[in-house]
Amino acid sequence: MNADHQPSAEWLAPSDSPRWVGLDIGGANLKIADGRGRAASAAFPLWREPRGLATAITSLLANFAAPREASIALTMTGELADCYATKADGVRAIIDATLDAAEGRAVRVAAVDDRWLTCADAKESPPLVAAANWRLGARLVAGQFPKDRGVWVDIGSTTTDVIPIEDGKVIAVGANDTARLLAGELVYTGVRRTPLCAVVDRLPYRGRECPVAAEWFATTADVWLLLGQLPENPSDSGTADGRPLVRQAAVERLARCLCADRDSFDVTDGLTVARHVAAIQTAKIVGALARHDAEWAVFTGEGEFLAPQVGNNATVAATSVASGHFGTAASRSFPAHAAAVLASHELGSNL
Amino acid sequence: MNADHQPSAEWLAPSDSPRWVGLDIGGANLKIADGRGRAASAAFPLWREPRGLATAITSLLANFAAPREASIALTMTGELADCYATKADGVRAIIDATLDAAEGRAVRVAAVDDRWLTCADAKESPPLVAAANWRLGARLVAGQFPKDRGVWVDIGSTTTDVIPIEDGKVIAVGANDTARLLAGELVYTGVRRTPLCAVVDRLPYRGRECPVAAEWFATTADVWLLLGQLPENPSDSGTADGRPLVRQAAVERLARCLCADRDSFDVTDGLTVARHVAAIQTAKIVGALARHDAEWAVFTGEGEFLAPQVGNNATVAATSVASGHFGTAASRSFPAHAAAVLASHELGSNL
Q: NCBIfam families given for it (chains A, B) (predicted)?
């Protein structure tokens, strides 16, 4: 990034501030961060076991060794999970689970109007806090890049946020997820969980184009693993078939999308498919970004490896990869990180 | 259908023949039929509980009151389920589970080359019996409509077979599922299980087009239920979210595809979405059928209600709905029905 687009100040919470931990409760992952660069993520299929949420948050806080005196800056997207009849029900359930797990720690909830609500107030106004996590990341980036027009791009496991910023202000138009989809500010594509049948209708196979099986047979994690952008992880079973995230299993999952198996689909076939899906998925993010006439773009999230490709194709003058400023962990849990940083600046110890 | 395209003979097994039951083991449903018009289907998520298959088949045989002296004409598509490393593994596991459940009944397995194999021979040549079920339905239709060029269209819960027939002969070119996808003879779309994100990229919402969430939030069962083509069934939990197949829950599932909920998406919105998805899905089947220059088309399966729409749009002169010949149950389990009919004609008691 050139000198005009350097971050203006600190990305991190002040070290002498009261301690806040940011907590971001998604539908498939729980994320936690201390605002100083430390962060963690735990896979949790909320839609499958909503009653286990409080226990899962308790474990997350314990594994993260969150201090007893730390307060919790909460944000969420998990209220959309289909275990909840409405988003309002989901918001209330997520707040209650967090309070259960908080063990007396103070909890404040981020609202889309940039306030921090008490849990009681948040439960009274679910639309204000539903899917507000993007707003935190966008505000943190806006504070760091106060010049010109730019865009914050958070490429996650499931979705991608593409949020326009101008002269230090967030200028997104979508206030809820439906409006954000319509505005192209929420792009429902990610580098792990997106099923292939939602990305493409056809895939290349030995010189021909084959229609894709409309099943949850493989996801983009298989694609980016084969392309070397995600590491193998034998203990990761958050895959389409629950088998490990390793190359051989990934090839077999991709095979199944064409109703093939390892007897008729090899690693070369897998790489061909992976490159095709990667190109389509990248183009989708490029398209969303190109709507914004951005001079600069800041990339966060597990998919920040797409920054060079997306930035070039969207002809953005300056791109920045957030992990370069404060490390990979916080980049991957950026809204949780931003929650801790912003709460610490904005709330301090005034609770 | 005009007189030239009437069925030529009997669709049913002779009543004095040795008893055969046809068994069709799919990845999501198990089907059984007696070849005389009686048939049944049981939802069974094979990919989730492969070890329960023998027990599930035992229950199916018991609930169907299959006689102890009946032999079993077996066919399958479930070997593609992602619980099996390869289709060959799947074929062997399905045959073993069937033998377990058969309790001494003879079992013969349908092959794509129109032979009936012993279980031992079938386990030696898995590609011959993998996904051979379409061949049975096609042969039965070909025998009934021996004139001119036509097409058998079996619209199921998950997939649609579109099989060309000429002068009483099946002239399909695909021998395995990948080849069948490539040939347009297997269309991976169905009236229950197909996720919306695999059918459409965008959906109409209050005068705009909204991108679709790439999640398993709703399926085509919700669409056809709202359009009155599938009945409400409070005990059917084979839906995207496991909640009942009833109208209110279907509307809420469709809402979630746009990141909305019942507070922002009502029955009218649901009907608009349903009509759009129905049109796209119908057009996909029309496109596959139109490749074949068919003079007649015979429709079977749960989705045979699409016959008039598909037949008209593909400009087929004569269409026939199979349930009119032998009832709804057998039409919905047509390959199982065909297995029983053909085994009874071709094998009789010569085992």
A: one_C_unchar_1
